[in-house]
Amino acid sequence: MKAQAKTKTTACPLLEFKNITVFKGEGRKVLNSLSLKIYEKECVAVLGPNGAGKSSLIKTITREYYPVPQKNGAFRILGQDRWNVFDLRFLLGIVSNDLQYACTRDITGLEMVLSGFFSTIGLFKERLTPAMKQKARKVIDFLEVASLQNRKMNEMSSGEARRFLIGRALVHEPRALILDEPTNSLDLHAFYKFTDLLRKIAKSGTSIILVTQNISDIIPEIKRVILMKEGKFYKEGPKEAILTDLNMTRLFSSPVEIKKKDGYYYALRA
Length: 270
Description:
This protein is of the alpha/beta class. The protein has 2 domains: 13-78 and 176-185 and 192-270, P-loop containing nucleotide triphosphate hydrolases (Rossmann fold, 3-Layer(aba) Sandwich), CATH 3.40.50; 95-174, no CATH class. 30% of the residues lie in helices and 26% in strands. It has a 6-stranded mixed beta sheet with strand order 5-6-7-3-8-9, sandwiched between helices. It has a 3-stranded antiparallel beta sheet with strand order 2-1-4, with helices on one face. It is globular.
């Protein structure tokens, strides 16, 4: 009896960068030959100091910045290298400090979540459907902020408002949630509540791409860490192998001692 050949199936990466270089302004290189693959349901952290190019990386993913054409370069999302920007917003939910600043307005938390259906800051109320309203309330319940849904965004704390921004991103079930420095401006109580929420989202099956300068932001569900410095990916691999005293000292150019507790990592001055 003839043996059957085994068919190898390879999942298409959610994001794929190959030799990506981006210039900004008058020829300033902000991303330098980046290559990376992130798969669906994978939770990854991009860690680096200020000025590493982390925000430029996010703006490249969202097509605000475009890489220079290169013979061996590639930038694909779910295997495609061409996307309508509006369609892309439904695949990748973005939460950033710039977005939070823009969304601090005289609209309610519920209205903010509903605006995610239209990729706006505000609503086209005549276009709302019962299904949209039902989905928004389901997301709000998941985020445990139903008691705040009628409060104005400009009357909320930073932590409260950020949960509604996440709701805005999650309302159309994106493949990944991309977070840019998500714990900036949060006090300790808000930080703990926020990281608990991220863990809940990760466990629900949504990919999380966390871009941060704070090691303590990296939740236990994140298994891979990418170090970024001066527009380059400095090192990447399993979290346990990357978050070491030596790597963090080199990354942040300062003596660092790493401690681990309950799945979280913390940086102390060495």
